[in-house]
TrEMBL record:
Primary location: membrane
Localization per record: Cell membrane
Protein name: HAMP domain-containing protein
InterPro entries referenced in this protein's UniProt entry, alphabetically: Bact_2-comp_sensor_kinase (IPR050640), HAMP_dom (IPR003660), HATPase_C_sf (IPR036890), Sig_transdc_His_kin_internal (IPR010559)
Secretion signal, residue range per the UniProt entry: none
Gene3D superfamilies attached to this UniProt entry: 6.10.340.10, Histidine kinase-like ATPase, C-terminal domain
Residue ranges crossing the lipid bilayer per the database entry: 18-38, 287-305
Domain of life where this protein originates: Bacteria
UniProt KW keywords: Cell membrane, Membrane, Phosphoprotein, Transferase, Transmembrane, Transmembrane helix
Organism: Amphibacillus indicireducens
Limits of the HAMP domain: 308-360
Membrane topology: Multi-pass membrane protein
């Protein structure tokens, strides 16, 4: 989690937990809503289908009744007695006339008894000026009434005629008089109350209404409580061919269904208040609300308990690790929880305790050893260097070169002051380079004729870098001692500085020419072996202190120099803040 802020961690973990929960719960919510919507639509569709089936069955039954009536009418038209009366009435005796009329009345009454929808059946015989009825027996013929019946009979689009608020079925014989009018017509007057009852019998819903519509959208009959205002609003708003519609009429919504009998130009229309459609889902709708409230409570409860039981204890652990990362090894998690997090907290506390013990036993001991080695290095004044310094001073005194004696003693004093000062273990690179340059100038007093020193300038951006004390001068001292001191002439010591990205290189190289690649490889192996002592004690000490300060990748790296000597690369890996 390094580099990830506390707030980011909180958002990531808590958000992921909530997202995972919603991934599980949302399909259930969506399924519940889908079931509710599906149930509502299915109930509405099922009600429509049921209503349409009822309407179609009603029309089929009505069609059978009308077909039966028509068949009786046509049979009656072919009756021999009726034909004889219509044609031979003038030559018939009174007895024959009376018997014929009696026969026809009985025949009409028999036909009336075959259907509950027949209120009256009549034969209008124009040729004899008589009307025979199942109810009124024999009456005088009315020309005006006959003409109105005949006009309806001649219109092929009317199967059921409306005449003086009565519903009739009329057929006529094919034989016609000189005026082209049939000799007689058979008229069946339908019983409107029975027809209304037939619609009431299929009216199963509260406030439901049914209508039977004839040609040109004429209302033939309706159920008892049906509102004609609602029908007319429907006919004005919707094309007559539509089967199912939901309309708003007088601030109320109604579902309309209709079925048609095209062969007779009959249509039955039904309307049901939408509240009636929704009523079966009322209880289910309450359960949907209860389900929704339960889901909301479940989400809130899950979020709260997830935060308390998982996220908050985990944040405590993360915060503890952050403090440990910053070097606070006294961090202990105070907890009274049990279960998995209690176990993790307990192991964390034990881990910190063990880590502190290891650091005390290893890291701190290593630091103490390094400091002891540094102090030992500081306390070791090379006798050979000291003797040579006195010889140089004696030579200058013999020549009475007071100015150089003063300069030499000042440099020598500064030199010993730096290596014997024990207060600080680290110095800025500028001071370390100044001390190394002082050493080369002292050596130059002795070897100026044989050894040339090329000491590069330290870049200003590197001056403030903190480095372990005494990491450059001992390397220069080894170059003089093992490579250049015995060189008769043209010795060269070069010190340079280089910064590459996050690495700082301090390079010391000479042209001693006394070392080969195999020896350099051996020296590198011995340099990284912390157990190696002998003459590399100083270099090993420098290498270990640099690694301890700057981490892996830093330290001393040996290679063959382009000057044909040894190249010592002091590498410092600078970590970005």
């Amino acid at each position: 989690m390094k580099g990830v802020s506390h707030q980011t961690f909180r958002k990531r973990l808590f958000s992921r937990l909530l997202i995972m929960y919603h991934i599980v719960i949302l399909p259930i919510i969506i399924l519940g809503l889908y079931l509710y919507i599906w149930s509502y639509n299915n109930a509405s569709d099922e009600l429509s289908r049921h209503t349409e089936n009822q309407l179609n069955m009603y029309l089929e039954g009505l069609n059978r009744e009308i077909a039966w009536m028509e068949s009786q009418q046509y049979n009656l038209l072919q009756d021999n007695e009726l034909q004889s009366v219509a044609i031979t009435w003038d030559v018939m005796s009174n007895v024959d006339r009376k018997e014929s009329m009696h026969y026809l009345v009985n025949r009409l009454r028999a036909i009336q008894g075959t259907s509950a929808y027949i209120e009256n059946i009549s034969i209008h015989i124009r040729s004899i000026g008589k009307t025979i009825s199942s109810i009124y027996s024999v009456q005088d013929f009315e020309d005006a009434y006959y003409a109105s019946i005949y006009s309806g009979f001649t219109n092929p689009s009317y199967f059921i005629n409306i005449l003086n608020e009565s519903l009739t079925l009329t057929v006529g014989n094919m034989s016609q008089d000189i005026d082209g009018v049939p000799f007689y017509l058979v008229e069946i007057e339908l019983d409107k109350s029975k027809l209304q009852q037939s619609l009431d019998s299929i009216n199963l819903y509260e406030n439901n209404g049914l209508f039977l519509i004839g040609s040109n959208q004429e209302l033939l009959w309706k159920s008892s409580d049906a509102s004609t205002d609602i029908l007319f609003e429907y006919l004005d708003q919707v094309p007559f061919e539509e089967d199912t519609q939901v309309l708003k009429i007088n601030d109320d919504h109604y579902q309309f269904n209709q079925a048609s009998l095209n062969e007779r130009n009959l249509t039955v229309i039904s309307y049901i208040p939408e509240d009636v459609v929704k009523r079966p889902l009322g209880i289910f709708k309450h359960w949907v609300w209860i389900f929704g409230v339960f889901v909301v409570i479940a989400i809130v409860g899950y979020a709260y308990y997830t935060y308390r039981l998982v996220h908050q204890p985990l944040l405590t652990l993360v915060n503890a690790f952050r403090k440990v990362e910053k070097g606070n090894l006294d961090q202990q998690i105070e907890q009274d929880s049990s279960g998995e997090f209690g176990y993790i907290y307990d192991r964390f506390n034990k881990m910190i305790t063990r880590l502190q013990n290891l650091i005390d036993r290893n890291y701190k001991q290593t630091l103490m050893v390094q400091k002891a080695e540094l102090k030992q290095l500081q306390s070791q004044i090379n006798p050979h260097f000291l003797y040579n310094s006195f010889f140089i001073l004696n030579s200058l005194a013999q020549t009475e070169d007071i100015e150089r004696i003063e300069q030499f003693t000042l440099m020598l004093g500064e030199y010993f002051k730096f290596i014997t000062r024990n207060e600080e273990n680290t110095v800025d690179l500028k001071s370390e380079v100044k001390h190394a340059r002082m050493y080369t100038e002292i050596q130059n007093m002795r070897f100026s004729r044989r050894i040339k020193v090329d000491f590069g300038e330290l870049p200003q951006e590197l001056e403030k870098i903190k480095v372990p004390k005494l990491i450059i001068q001992p390397i220069i001292e080894n170059a003089y001692k093992y490579s250049l001191e015995n060189k008769a002439e043209a010795g060269l010591l070069r010190v340079s500085f280089l910064k590459m990205n996050s690495e700082v290189h301090i390079i010391v190289e000479d042209n001693g020419g006394l070392i080969n690649e195999l020896e350099i490889d051996s020296l590198n192996e011995r340099l990284r072996d912390t157990e190696t002592k002998q003459e590399l004690t100083g270099l090993v000490n420098i290498h270990r202190r640099i690694v301890l300060t700057y981490g892996e990748g830093s330290g001393i790296y040996l290679s063959k120099s382009e000057l044909d000597g040894l190249k010592v690369d002091v590498r410092l890996v600078i970590k970005e803040d």
